[in-house]
Amino acid sequence: MIHLQNVTLTFPDGDNRITAVDDVSLRGDNGTVTGITGPSGSGKSSLLAVAATLIRPDSGGVLIGDGGAAIDAAQLTKREAAALRREQIGIVFQQSNLLPALTAREQVQVMGRLGGTGRARRARIDARADELLDAVGLSEHAGKRPHQLSGGQRQRVAIARGLVHEPQVLLIDEPTSALDQERGAEIMQLIARLTRERDTATLLVTHDLIHRDLFDDLVTIVDGRIVQPDTASPGASPAVGGRGEAAIA
Question: In the chain, how many domains are there?
């Protein structure tokens, strides 16, 4: 589970500060996909960066985990936050960002080995890499390098890489932006399926709402705040109910 509580994030702008995220509360439960949409520059990616512990918010909490075992990532040091990312957070960026020299299998293995290199751990990660490549439909392409894969296949590798360390939380930024509609649909369906199978709490930033029925919740951010249908900008999608929580704090 991930629970953002009254998160505010600002950036310096000369003598003033610009508010990128404005007092936002948002919750994603295990086994659910929460879509985050809104116009460009509305704060979606900034919010995802806070959730990923890549940026510390000015105020608010980022609770990861369930019940009394939840950790407030906003209070961690940089080293502690990095350790939390390795252990509990999977991140899939807008671009697949695969390493050109590595095969699909090696891309997944390398990410899984960041937390240690013992023989038992290597064997476990290798087996998990093969399992995940099979889960995303790439077993037959495990030995190929990025230039030998299509855009959709590269994004599938990135998703497998994000799941290799069995994270509680999966954060995904615009996974279909570089894909055609058919490949984009396949990726969105894959994310929804793996979220449920792996029981992760998935937050997904997207402009592609054709497959909004795959989301358990969908929230719209405008000017750094979650808005309701009557205050959303033209063409923006409203927040809709589901198993998660989204609120204007």
Answer: 1
DSSP 103-114: -HHHHHHHHHGG
Give the chain's length: 249
Query: Average pLDDT by consecutive 10-residue portion of the chain (249 residues)?
Result: 97 93 96 95 94 96 89 95 93 91 95 71 88 96 96 95 94 90 92 96 91 92 83 44 39
Question: Position 60: which residue type?
Answer: G
Query: How far apart, in Å, are the Cα atoms of 38 and each of 129, 172, 203, 214, 225?
Result: 34, 15, 14, 17, 10
* CA R_g for the chain: 18
Q: pLDDT tens digits, residue range 221-236?
A: 999 999 975 444 444 4
Q: What stretches of 36-177 show up as alpha helix (H) in DSSP?
A: 44-51, 78-88, 104-112, 119-135, 151-163
β partners of residue 36: 205, 219
Q: How many CB atoms lie within 10 A of CB 220?
A: 26
Query: Which CATH number goes with the domain that contains 13?
Result: 3.40.50.300
CB neighbours of 234 closer than 8 A, spacing ≥ 6?
A: none
Q: Which domain holds residue 74?
A: 2-248
Residue 88 and residue 69: Cα distance in Å, rounded? 13
SS3 at position 173: strand
Burial class (CB in 10 A: 0-12, 13-18, 19+), 98: buried
For the stretch 147-162, pLDDT in tens is 999 999 999 999 999 9
**How many alpha carbons lie under 13 Å from residue 145 in its C-beta half-sphere?**
5
Going by C-alpha positions, the residue among 40, 26, 136 that lies closest to residue 92 is 136
